[in-house]
Amino acid sequence: MNLFCRAVLLALPLNVAGISFTSASPQLSFEPCQVVKNSVFVDAECAVLERAENPNLPDGENNKKVALHIVKFAARTPEPAADAFTIIQGGPGMSSIDLYLSMRQVFAGVLANRDIIVVDQRGTGRSNLLSCPQNDALNTGEFNEELTKQFARECLAALTSKPEFYTTSIAVQDLDAIRELAGYPQLTIYGVSYGTRVAQHYARQFPSRTRALVLDGVAHVGLNLAGAEIALRSQQAFDRILSRCDAEPSCQSTYGSLGDKFAELRTRLKETPVTINFPHPISGDFIEQELTEQHLLGMMRLMPYATESLALLPLILTQAHAENYVPMAAQAVLIEQQFENDYAYAMNNAVVCTEDAPFLTADDLKGHETTYFGTDLSKNMQALCDVWPQGVMDENFRTPLESSIPALLLSGETDPITPPENGELAATMFSNSLHIVAPHHGHGVVGRGCLPQLMTEFIESGSVAELSTECANRERAMPLFTSPTGPTP
What we know:
Blueprint: H1 3-7, E1 31-37, E2 40-52, E3 65-73, E4 84-88, H2 96-102, E5 116-119, H3 145-158, H4 168-182, E6 187-192, H5 194-205, E7 210-216, H6 228-247, H7 249-255, H8 258-271, E8 274-279, E9 286-291, H9 293-302, H10 307-321, H11 326-342, H12 345-355, H13 376-387, E10 407-412, H14 420-427, E11 433-438, H15 451-461, E12 481-483, E13 486-487
Parallel strand pairs: 4-6, 6-7, 7-10, 10-11
Antiparallel strand pairs: 1-2, 2-3, 3-5, 8-9, 12-13
Helix pairs in contact: 3-13, 4-5, 6-7, 8-9, 8-10, 9-11, 12-13
């Protein structure tokens, strides 16, 4: 498992007030289809749009076509709103279509009055997935510059596409072409995590075509994804867990010092990885799994993303410390399976090596020595990006926004990667915005409590002015498990 690589893991039209939009004649050919992900089957309408891989070259034999897969879910009313709603997944490198399938009930209210149209961004999911062969040598727990560069060279050699044309700047051009050809004068956009970067850049490049934004787990303009932010935020999330356990008598009496257990377990796995046989957490078949320091760090980083998995972390960490490695191995397998099946590493590298790594500064790395990741994440990305080609990035890409587009910003109070201060900073760039912080929740909160209803109300009105957000304050954290059967009563 390549945790290092996972951890990171135009013309500007004027937005003229008072413009009256009417739907254009659609030119995309949608056909009835069934969209499938694992055991989920959803009826929809599907279309494929071929776009030039290099938009700066004329069409021809030397300019590859990228087939963008588009799914439309029709509104339940015979007279839907003129704009369409779209969602953009994070990563970078994950499928927006799959995100919709997994969260379709959250967005069900939107379908009452407007179509939902979703595209897998080029290089992800069904739209020419750009992935990389696995390189197990990277899973050593030690930063090795040459191994990282070797991985990058192997990945590039395996590609039949040019990754420099799979960046955010080109993705927003694709999205606007789809909007136009599908016959919608405007889009209302939901983005989560990296998807908020795409949404904001679309709004920058096409302000008159952007009706409203919902930004969930905000990556504000200028945020650097090349390892620096991850190390600091992951350490902060772990520190919160330690403080929470110390403050809860049942957790403290059950587990003692979680920080010491983590340090001892990390040293043990770094010196001597453990191989165990255990039932696969999904299939039940017995499998063999080697556990290393990198599996521990991946678990520590990713489990705080949701309050439910965070509640299990002290238990799993303590059991592994006591040499019961099965729960930790099950988490490692689930994490590996999700990323191996769904994550477009090469597309991720294309984005980060263009939009983030070149702008990493010494100031960004201050304080990293005291985090459990140290400086390895940023060093790894820098080494990878020394080999990886830089791609297309608009000149204004990192310039702070000044926008009056209505924007609903959502943050989780305990988000371990895009904390509420990111949303606060982004809110300063939107003069017509509202920032809601969901108490006790982590990364991506649109499905929590009353937030689906608030989002639907915002999308219907296109305004934050009348939203009553008191209901969001009712959210509570999942109690920390003190045994495999659950929390202390």
